[in-house]
Amino acid sequence: MADDINIWKMSEQKYFRETLGYIFQNYALIEDQTVSYNLGLVNKNREQQLEVLSAVHLPVDLLNRKIFELSGGQAQRIAIARLLLKKPKIILADEPTGALDAETGQEIIDLLLSLSNDETYVIFATHDPNVYQCVDEVIHISDLRY
Questions:
Q1: I need a labelling partner for 64 at 20 to 30 A (CA). Which of 8, 54, 77, 95 fits?
Q2: Is 22 exposed, middle or buried (0-12, 13-18, 19+ CB in 10 A)?
């Protein structure tokens, strides 16, 4: 249950569209399109796009830049901004710091953890020990028994 919604009774399509959000190590952005285009896949409202850029500490002039022109940290923040526009209840972050330097990686961890609250769950899949120190619980897959 997330936010008193029984996800087991949802259709798979509704679950993926409305409840679950992903952040991938490779950002899953359309490289030859602009930031605005990528954000617009979730929400075309320009004002809300500007708000999420501010929330991820990026300047608004990036809206018209192509993804391939951005640094790894900027691209990862755009992926997070896109996620903010979606407002999922559950966020799966797959190696969100894997391609980033230590400082940018910590900023991304802090940003993702700031999204975690009573209404939103953030789940990291990572090998990064810096993440282990920042989260409430660590589950080692190798320790699980079936």
A1: 95
A2: middle
